[in-house]
Amino acid sequence: MKCKICKEKAIIKLKRHNIKLCKEHFNDFFLKQVDRAIKEYKMFKKEDKIMVCVSGGKDSLVLWYVLKKLGYNSVGMYINLGISEYSENSKKKVIEFAKRFDLQYKIVDLVELGYPIPKVAKESRRAECSVCGIIKRYYFNKVAFDEGFDVVATGHNLDDEASRLLGNILHWNEEYLKKQLPVLPAEGNMLKKKVKPLIRLTEKEIASYAFLNRIDYIIDECPLSEGATSLVYKDALNLIEENIVGTKQFFYFQYVKKLLKEIKQSQSEKRYLKKCKICGMESFHDICSFCRLVKDEKQ
Amino acid sequence: MKCKICKEKAIIKLKRHNIKLCKEHFNDFFLKQVDRAIKEYKMFKKEDKIMVCVSGGKDSLVLWYVLKKLGYNSVGMYINLGISEYSENSKKKVIEFAKRFDLQYKIVDLVELGYPIPKVAKESRRAECSVCGIIKRYYFNKVAFDEGFDVVATGHNLDDEASRLLGNILHWNEEYLKKQLPVLPAEGNMLKKKVKPLIRLTEKEIASYAFLNRIDYIIDECPLSEGATSLVYKDALNLIEENIVGTKQFFYFQYVKKLLKEIKQSQSEKRYLKKCKICGMESFHDICSFCRLVKDEKQ
Ligand SMILES: [Zn+2]
Ligand SMILES: [Zn+2]
Ligand SMILES: [Zn+2]
Ligand SMILES: [Zn+2]
Predict the structure, then answer these.
(1) Where does Zn(2+) 2 bind (chains A, B) (predicted)?
(2) pLDDT for A268 beyond 60
């Protein structure tokens, strides 16, 4: 197996691109895919201040690493979810990583704030993953606004997004379908732009990149994670991809293309943001989801 | 395991309906599902003359059998594709079946007509399955028109249609997506209405029904069949269905609902049929696909 570019020994085969690459050229390929996503979807520019949401897992750490390599100005934002050992270990990975690569970071500690996920889930009698989603989104938005970031970047990859798209299509979740894009524009004055620079890369490619570049990440999944459902869609898509190479990629990006076209055509309808009556953050409701969740207020 | 209705010994478990049934009540259930599909999508009425496309496989023979049970007036239409032993065996099954249940049938013999699939495929240098599709569609349409049928019924089941829908979505085949319905209306004066009365039933349910009612069908798949692709989508959907019961059914029927709504909204745009310059059948082209295929005419 020889590298398509230099003819040296290849270490990876990328079926969907029909190429084999050596370590050096795989690294090049990887950076190019991120660069291409950033430019194609106009995610951010060199002068933008980027907040990278880091969990300690492979996707977010690789993203943080690559953005530095590409010369972008990013700060990692870690939320301590208060999920016992898992949170302690992932926090440690994030701090070690930041020190090793001389990266800036910020920590929001839900335990100190009084909102550790298991406690809020119990008190609000809601599923932990749904609570976790609301709280994370809230603090990512809040910190991005408070600290004047231009854009919020997350480590979602092609498998994440294609499988989520498949799940949303199989259940025709129209509301979610409208939001499945690599870039979500800023809304109002407080909700910053959200971007997914790893969108052109698969889980396997990201894991290979992390391995080759000795990025030390937390391998455990969150112990509270439902996971099962999204894994089923991933498995189903991978089964199809193995037999019909290129399907995953075509499926997702063609969808994005169609959706962007539709959105352009219907730019007229706009939603209006209000300010949360309790905390003042912008929201589409009088009281934001976070405050409804934790302040025990009935709307 | 007890039948939900009579509490006798159940012989089948229908996960997606969350019921177990004995033989008698499964048979009832099966007929009700067909009846419901016929009425829900206004497929045909008691006085209509129905042409059932029969291949000798389980789906088409079960459909033929059930339509008789439900008191509809149907004639089986078998096309001898000229695919060696497979065609001989399937023809035998169809004739035996018709005799046993006292059903009328018609045979179109592509060998006699000079268009056996392997020959046409070779001469037109096209894939056998694509040639077979064109020729079958042509003769089903032609016979239905020539003999004054009101409607053409095929044995497509929920697995066939849901997996085809999945494949068409994964590749965003917009043209095919617009036509994935349990009923396709008649077009022009020659192209009759097409219906799929088994649409509410899965492959497994149909196989169980055939087994319980001793319907003797040809088990072999067509030896020329590509098959692989559609099987991959079926496997992927079954993998999801096993984990998230009800997905297949919701996915397909919700799609149909959305599509029917869209069609209603855009009834204005209509396509116009012409008559084929060679054979006189209605077609959207000057020369129909069949004639372009076999008459060696370049358009
Ligand atoms: Zn190389
Ligand atoms: Zn609030
Ligand atoms: Zn019973
Ligand atoms: Zn013609």
Answers:
(1) 276, 279, 288, 291
(2) no
DSSP for residue A258:
H
Residues (pLDDT < 50) of chain B are 297-299
Mean predicted confidence (pLDDT) in A276-291: 87
Backbone angles phi and psi of A78, in degrees to 5: -115, 135
Q: What is the pLDDT of residue B247?
A: 96
Residue of chain B minimizing CA distance to A228: B243
CA–centroid distance for A30 within its chain: 17
> Which ligand is closest in space to the CA of residue B28?
3
Domain-wise residue ranges, chain B: 33-267, 272-299
Q: Does A255 touch chain B (CB under 8 A)?
A: yes
Architecture of domain B33-267: 3-Layer(aba) Sandwich (3.40)
Task: Give dist(CA B214, CA B211) in Å, integer.
Answer: 5
Across the interface, do B170 and A250 touch by the CB < 8 Å criterion? yes
Minimum Cα–Cα distance from B250: chain A residue: A171
Residue in A232, A255, A258 nearest the CB of B244: A232
Report the residue from B232, B247, B254 with minimal CB separation from A244: B232
pLDDT value, residue B298: 45
Cβ contact (<8 Å) for B243 and A254? no
Pick the CATH number of A40-220+229-267 from 3.40.50.620, 3.40.50.300, 1.10.8.420, 3.40.1550.10: 3.40.50.620
Contacts of B232 in chain A (CB under 8 A): 239-240, 243-244
Taking only Cα atoms into account, the Rg of chain A, rounded to an integer number of angstroms, comes to 20
| Residue A180 to residue A256: CA distance in whole angstroms | 7
Chain A residue at shortest CA distance from B232:
A240
ipTM score over 0.95, yes or no: no
| Stated length of chain B | 299
Closest-CA distance, A171 to chain B, in angstroms, reads 6
3-state secondary structure of A106: strand
Tell whether A233 lies on the interface with B, counting CB pairs under 8 A. yes
